[in-house]
């Protein structure tokens, strides 16, 4: 193999090492955060706590004008809420099976099983977290082509999260349709964040720390790639900032609403939940920064090791030095 082929193979292998490091560190980090996400937010609520939260949130919805926008709380501790969650879960499964049955060939079925099944599993996991009282979600529920703000929550297991989710709807309620669409489409849609992170990762992994000395092989976009590589962890943090800002604003708005309508005892547990929420999302954002940094360290370490091995080979095993 010529030098170019060897160099390209080394670069590809180094990128693979970095990619593997990024995925592994994310999986480990997300597993750690998931185990601690919301669990320490509050103890098992008493019947009095549940009653006070239900009364307070209904007062807030009516007094703050949320009912004019058709805001609904789907409480899965009640039969109606649980039925709707089960219907949504069945709808997701049926949609997946229908897509799988319509696949025209084996390769299409493989792609659906590989990617769509993972999406389906994530959605089912979200529903499981809601049922178990480990998380809650603010969504826009579509009924007859019209969107209604909705809160998915288990009020008997995790009532202290209800004002945080109400804060999400307050974030968007007063900004109008254009800003509302932007915030829901960009700030809270993790697809944009993930795609940006993958873009930063791939550019940094396929960019060398040093510019190619051969002027004929120099990439004119190298300075851009070098900047992204040198600041990959910082850029990852900046990409995560909109999500962190949205969640922080939701907690702040929820805290303001809670102070108006909740008794002091329940206000304490809600404050603890909001603090824990912010720390969880901060850890989530920090996880991507650390993963990006470790991925580039692993990639550059591989290149350094290969370079040293090639130097030793040329120094001690060069055939010309042993020629007679």
Structure description:
The chain has 324 residues and is mostly helical. It has one domain. 72% of the residues lie in helices and 6% in strands. The protein has 10 helices and 3 strands; from the N terminus they run ααβααββαααααα. Strands 1-3-2 form a 3-stranded mixed beta sheet. The longest helix is centred in the C-terminal third of the chain and has 53 residues, at 264-316. The chain starts with a helix and ends in an 8-residue tail after the last helix.
The number of E-state strands comes to 3
Number of H/I helices: 10
The coarse overall form would be: elongated
Structural class: mainly alpha
- Poorly predicted parts: 175-179
Q: Within the largest sheet, what's the order of strands?
A: 1-3-2
Helical content class: over 70%
Q: Nearest-angstrom radius of gyration?
A: 26 Å
- H and E order: HHEHHEEHHHHHH
Give the overall pLDDT as a whole number.
83
Number of domains: 1
Q: What's a concise summary of this model?
A:
This protein has 324 residues and is mainly α. Helix content is 72%, strand content 6%. 27% of the residues are buried.
